[in-house]
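ingest -> fold -> write
write: protein_1
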Amino acid sequence: MDMHPHAQLIHDFYTAFQRRDAQAMAACYHPDLEFSDAVFVGLRHARATAMWTMLVERGTDLQLTFRDVQADDHTGRAHWDAHYTFSTTGRKVINRIDAAFEFRDGKIVRHRDAFDFWTWSRQALGPAGLLLGWTPLLKNQVRKQAQRSLDKFMKERGLTGP
């Protein structure tokens, strides 16, 4: 059975992620890309591709699996699980993520990852995540720290972009 070209694109994206090949991941994205998840919101192409580069470089023990890839001419979806050590705390995390995609010109133009932030924060942050992971306060603090990390990463590599 032939795979829809957009399903193949999703498969290629996650296969590149498994190989820690951020450049191949970026090649799956349309120049007008917008990426969002619970931590990184509204990233445009340059920042989204820098985020993936940062994550694959820093996630030294990252293990990724994906499944349930489906796509048609306009939209797609997949489920992926990431097993890694959260570098800030040294705690082990298993993040279960549902991804939704939109396509334009044979590339991913919208990528939305959805995961349970409270579940993630309990694993990544320990007691603070357990007690406060459901609150907007902690989520906003994590978002700000993630943006600062991404800004620093991009500055260190001379990368620019919205």
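write: protein_2
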Amino acid sequence: MLYDTMNCKCSRRVWEKYSAGASSVTLHCSENGNYEPLQCEDGECYCVHPATAQTYGPSLPEAAIKLLPCYNKTQIGGQYLRRCESEFKAHAILSKLLKSKLVQPPSTTLTCDPDGSYAPIQYEGANPKCYDKYKTQIYPTAGAGCQCRRDEVLFAREGIQVEMQCEVNSGQYTEKQMKGETIFCVDEDGVRTGPMVYEEGFGKMLDCGKAASCQNGDNDSCNGSCKDCPTDAYVEHVSIR
């Protein structure tokens, strides 16, 4: 259901604004990149249909947010901005004020997710570490990513048992994942990028680089995702395309 109406219009708009030099963006995107129903931008708030990205109803000052038809106190609470973006916006305002007085402002390594919560990787000094959306540390070393550790914590909180392997000294997914007697390549989000093959005898034949290229649209790489694998290497004889 999450991907049935995916349009990515919110995440695209956020990217456009940052690419144009915006220092702080307060749009809220859902997990599939669509707009959340309630949006506030430059002090004005309005409602959006997530599936179509079309606005509806009036545009009101943030102080009158509770009068909007899409306002939901349970989901939004008493204010629009979430913890991370509130912290980030405060730093942006302070930086702008100090620069106007010809004072060099302090730097920040804080990063937020598109929904306003804390991004997976945050820095403690020069050391990147893995955090959940509420800035609770979940792993002491980030490496190149933290999505595996985040998913691990999320599944545990929901009481869901999932076979998944994270890198030992990092929060990211291992390049090859095992499930029962099978093995397959995944991307940084844990999404399978190539065929599932039987680990015993064929695991070493997987080429995750080719699988990633195939996933990104390079069709010439698809047949090399499992180099010279015979038909019986594939789970239930599923083809690699």
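write: annotation protein_2
The radius of gyration is 22 Å.
The first helix runs from residue 9 to 19.
pipeline exit 0
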